[in-house]
Specification:
Elements (H helix, E strand, L loop, with lengths): L3 E4 L5 H16 L6 H11 L5 E8 L2 E13 L4 E11 L8 H15 L5 E3 L8 H9 L14
Parallel strand pairs: 4-5
Antiparallel strand pairs: 1-2, 2-3, 3-4
Helix pairs in contact: 1-2
Length: about 150
Amino acid sequence: MDLSIVRASPQDFKTVACLVHALLQELSGGKATPIGELEETAQVVLSKHGVFALLAVSEGQPLGVVVLNECAAIYAGGEFGEITELYVRPEARSLGVAARLVEAAIVEATRHGWHRIEVGAPPQPEWARTMQFYLRNGFEEVGPRLRRRL
């Protein structure tokens, strides 16, 4: 498969929103935020400093996306990256697309001077395959993340 990884521009917000919508549909059992709202949010988020998306494209078609955010924490030794979304279309899974996206994210992280990338742990055992993917790609399990909506 001819696959290229390209950095999304803010003008790619509809493509990124479409892929994130598919991710959220899968994670929520079909109860994702409406695509129009995600497009508005993607347009704003992709124009912010410290946020960027990488698209996996084959024959002009987007197959996947990874979105990275710059964070900072004392425990992390300063700035680091966080994968906030990673999605590959079902028909392209098991073809190495997600691994290529993670590799490209690592290159970008290194370019930014980050010394680590983190990702929230998916609920187990439901998403065991996702957890195993991250572990195979060099991530270490350090526990889940909690949230409080404001």
